Amino acid sequence: MDKELLYTILLSLIYGPSSFSMYNSINLHKGAENAYMALKEGTSEIKKPLTANQKNNLNKLDISDAEKIAEKCIKENIIPLLISDIRYPQRLREIYNPPSLLYCKGDISELADSPCIAMVGTRNPSQYSLKLASALSKGLASCGFGIVSGFAVGIDIISHISAVTAGGKTYAVIGCGINYNYPKENICFRDHITENGAIISEYPPDYPPSSFSFPPRNRILSGMSLGTVVIEAALKSGSLITANHANDQNRDLFAVTPCNVFDLRYGGNISLIRDGAIPVMGIKDILYEYYPEYKDKLTAKAAEIYSSGFITGNVYKSSADQPVSEDTNNTAASSEDISRTVTTETVPDDETDFSELPEKQRLIAEIIKKAEHPVLADEIAEEAGLEISETLSLLTDMEIDGIVTGGAGNTYYM
């Protein structure tokens, strides 16, 4: 086994994975083995004294403990990445106190230099925020951005699944060991993420979650990303921790514009925008910041969106620009034609054919059609046997495509 890897694992067990003293010691002593030997012999150049717990770890742990973790990684297809590994996220190396070691499970083929965007927000989002997180994640993923989030319920998981749905890459940075199934509500999505990206942690595989393990992972979320998008955050939201990291790391900070500026759930968004965060009303607001520099890594769709400009179509044309017919009879006839077109093309009849829709969308469409009245998203999810986050993601796609219509109270109808 690689000695540098084993001694880095051992140091992480002694210091704790997110310790700056560990990162600093490895740098000062030009390697993890030298850093460990200096620590053991009392000749370390790190002046900060060890805590009582770290001293205890130093006395009771040895290289065999690191070997057990390395063997577990091999057995369970977990990839340990040293900061010197070419597969390690390049941007993450640039931050203050980057993880000396990451544990990854999944596809990391694009991890090193993928243009990533972090999506963060509350665990109890509004329907507006869920729809926005889904639409932004899908749009950005289809443009070639990797979507980074924290695998929590709410905004995080909808961002991950929406990226996967769009055929993109997503990276879940978690605050516990990869083998620890937390949160339990999201266990069913783990395979989707590892098949279309990776689950990433700086903690050993069996490290349990705690109130102390989650805040440090936020620096990784923002550090490996070009920018961080705050979807929904109150004034004292945990998402603002990630926003602060992004600011400290000289990363771009975006905040979704709230649908209601008086809604306290978006107090953090308003504060961020007031302090200089880039307001987001769609993927163009993010794409415009990065396309010129990263166009070689982005898709044809990104090029199409970027070249279209912010204003398209006839939305802002004044009435003076429109040709005026002098024949009022023709105008009346045109109105009838428009009415007929709307009736025949947008209102589905009893013979509506859903056969060409993807299986899950077809199932949802049939449930709504059968009901003949607006149906709650929760009811659709229950009848379809789907998770509510996945159902909302599918409904958003179907609403964009004009298959269903969203109504008041999170209902949908045709």
Write the layout of secondary structure elements.
Blueprint: H1 3-15, H2 20-28, H3 32-41, H4 52-60, H5 63-75, E1 79-82, E2 101-106, E3 116-120, H6 127-142, E4 146-149, H7 155-165, E5 170-173, H8 190-195, E6 197-201, H9 214-223, E7 227-230, H10 239-248, E8 252-256, H11 267-274, E9 278-280, H12 283-294, H13 300-308, H14 328-346, H15 359-371, E10 375-376, H16 377-384, H17 388-400, E11 405-407, E12 411-413
Parallel strand pairs: 3-4, 3-7, 4-5, 5-6, 7-8, 8-9
Antiparallel strand pairs: 1-2, 2-6, 10-12, 11-12
Helix pairs in contact: 1-3, 1-5, 2-3, 6-7, 6-17, 7-17, 9-10, 12-13, 15-16, 16-17
Structural class: alpha/beta
Which fold name is given in CATH as the topology of the largest domain?
A: Rossmann fold
| Tally of distinct domains | 3
At the first level of CATH, what is the class of the largest domain? Answer: Alpha Beta
Contiguous runs where pLDDT drops below 50 for at least 5 residues: 311-350
Q: What does the average pLDDT come to?
A: 86
> What proportion of the residues is helical, as a percent range?
40-55%
**CATH structural architecture of the largest domain:** 3-Layer(aba) Sandwich
List keywords for this structure.
46% helix; 414 residues; Arc Repressor Mutant, subunit A; three-stranded antiparallel β-sheet; nine-stranded mixed β-sheet; alpha/beta; Rossmann fold
Offer a quick outline of the entry:
By secondary structure, the protein is of the alpha/beta class.
